[in-house]
Design a protein that fits this description.
By secondary structure, the chain is of the alpha+beta class. It is built from 13 helices and 15 strands. Keywords: Membrane, Transmembrane, Transmembrane helix.
Length: 417
């Protein structure tokens, strides 16, 4: 196959010859005015058409090409990227069918909003799966807009909470020394870029306060786009630059999970998807295999920032694990101390009370927290009342899902008191 630098000028030349030929044909048929119009349109189409043709040919080798063709992220992107298997185990955490008293969740009332019928809300917001777990009872399980019990749901940044959990397990197993280790203890080649990387700790990475440079908006060249679409995410992680000293401010940055993924891979000597299966997905009792989208077939590095895919009911099991201090039956899957630390409302070691180790902290309800992803993917957890709410959808549909999920948990709590 031609390399991208050679392909672009060739395609532009072909498009140029096509426009010249079209102009000559019309000149013979219609006259100068039409000729000029066709030539102008053809000239304007050359760059866009050539770029599109190049992008289609370079999908396996260019983040920009992927952004040009695929554009904004989509819930079906898990079908586009290569899939790394995350097998489930033989033991399944059994969830029983349950129910709530009549009328408890007929409607919801988010703060500052009007009361709305829950089914109508789910319908109009493109929700594909909505589950409420109380203890081991599924008291609500609804699927809409093509969703179903066996369907795969991509989680976008819920993957960060999964990755955070793997880090906690690796620390407990002694594979990672401490969150206070500098990232350069595991990725020393960063020192060749900037000696200040010695100041960037794993803790600053998992709290989004690393001080790394990151531009969130603007396809196709922004950091947001590159960290999502890059076909070589290891190289992308190593291209990061320092913007300011760590610990000064909270700034959402997808280079952070990429670097931590490198650390985890090297510290454990195991690909992250395989490690996730062995230490998390099988022990928590998932009912079905999951997958982790990879950057490309060639490089096979899991999309740490956004690529974990599973059934909605298994996301509920993941929430159950955190609602029960990391324990499932007789298995302590995640250290209880890590669960508490990762979801705490604490600014003693980082600058944001609403965010801890890649978990969002509900500052309106003490002790509650959630994993969140683009397009409105949520795993909302209230350990005090043993309630987990999962929402998966094609898009947000509304601005404030956290308020809706909080209201749902409040209503379930009131029904059980």
């Amino acid at each position: 196959m031609l390399t991208s630098p050679l392909l672009v000028p060739l395609l532009l030349a072909v498009a140029g010859l096509a426009s010249w030929g079209a102009a000559r044909f019309v000149r013979r048929r219609r006259g100068r005015t039409v000729t000029a119009l066709v030539a102008l349109l053809a000239f304007l189409a050359v760059p866009g058409g050539g770029l599109q043709l190049w992008a289609l040919a370079a999908l396996d080798s260019s983040a920009v090409a992927r952004a040009v063709v695929w554009r904004d992220a989509d819930v079906d992107d898990w079908r586009r990227f290569p899939a790394l298997p995350v097998p489930a185990g033989a033991r399944t955490l059994q969830l029983r069918p349950g129910s709530l008293p009549t009328g408890v969740l007929d409607e919801v009332t988010p703060p500052g909003g009007a009361t709305e019928d829950l089914d109508a809300l789910l319908e109009r917001t493109g929700t594909q799966a909505f589950l409420v777990l109380r203890g081991d009872e599924l008291v609500v399980e609804r699927y809409l807009h093509g969703g179903n019990r066996e369907g795969t749901q991509t989680s976008f940044s819920v993957a960060k909470s999964v990755l955070s959990t793997l880090v906690g397990i690796a620390v407990d197993r002694g594979e990672i020394g401490s969150l206070d280790d500098p990232v350069t203890a595991y990725v020393p080649e960063l020192l060749d870029r900037d000696e200040d990387f010695t100041r960037v700790t794993l803790r600053s990475l998992v709290t989004m306060s690393s001080g790394l440079r990151y531009e969130e908006h603007g396809l196709p060249w922004s950091d947001d786009s590159v960290t999502y679409y890059s076909p070589d995410l290891r190289a992308t992680a190593l291209s990061v630059e320092i913007d300011e000293a760590p610990g000064l401010r909270w700034h959402y940055d997808n280079y952070n999970p990429l670097l931590v993924g490198l650390v985890l891979e090297r510290a454990t000597g195991t690909p992250v998807a395989q490690y996730a299966s062995e230490v998390l997905w099988q022990p928590l009792g998932a009912e079905a295999d999951a997958s982790w989208s990879a950057d490309s077939e060639e490089h096979g590095f899991a999309k740490m920032e956004s690529g974990f895919n599973a059934r909605a009911v298994d996301y509920a099991r993941f929430g159950y694990l955190f609602a029960h201090e990391g324990r499932v039956g007789d298995r302590q899957v995640v250290p209880a101390a890590w669960v508490a630390e990762a979801t705490a409302r604490d600014t003693s070691t980082d600058p944001a009370e609403h965010y801890q180790y890649w978990w969002w902290v509900d500052t309106e309800r003490e002790g509650r927290f959630s994993a969140r992803g683009n397009k409105g993917q949520y795993v909302y957890v209230d350990p005090t009342t043993d309630v987990v709410v999962v929402r998966m959808g094609r898009d947000h549909g509304i601005d404030d899902w956290p308020a809706v999920l909080r209201d749902v948990a409040d209503r379930v709590q009131a029904a059980g008191s």
